[in-house]
Task: structure prediction
Amino acid sequence: MRYTGPKNRIARREGMDLGLKTPGSKSHARLLKKINLIPGQHGTRGRRKISEWATQLREKQKLRFLFGVTEKQLKNYFKKSSAKKGNTALYVSQYLERRLDNVVYRLGFAPTRAAARQLVAHGHINVNDKKVKIPSYQLDVNDKISFFNDKSMKIPAVEKSLANKDIIVPSWLEKKAIAGKILALPTMEGIEQQINLRLIIEYYSR
Result:
């Protein structure tokens, strides 16, 4: 199941901003103030040194929460990736990055991946001029992403995101005004800045 509990608690548990809250919001500001405080009444007191397996588990959980995927989805991505010849970690990252909800977020059409997932599920996004309502839909090179109609672009959260000039679009994507395009297959760079993919591959390879 996808996690639906307190989002700031999860971010504090993992010790990093997982992009679960809209940047600039009061909730996000509260998170940044407490990001280094582990949730719970006793904090770090009495915590044991974590094992190698626990370290791998934490990295896996970070990746899950970062992309908003279920355990089943992530495990399936690993199985598909490990069945291919080559770098398993790269293939896992490509499956995650090529999800439609992630690309909508990466293009700056939504403030968070959760908001992007909602946009897709509610029918506000087109792929190659056809409505797609599946957040996990896998995009390919040369696919074009756009809004379904003008009403979709007038959603307050969308308008605010589109007006944000600080969005950095990955090199494998192209953004022109209110449309985007997949230029190439994603690399691991975007994920590896936050997550140790090697530990996750080791976790699933046990």
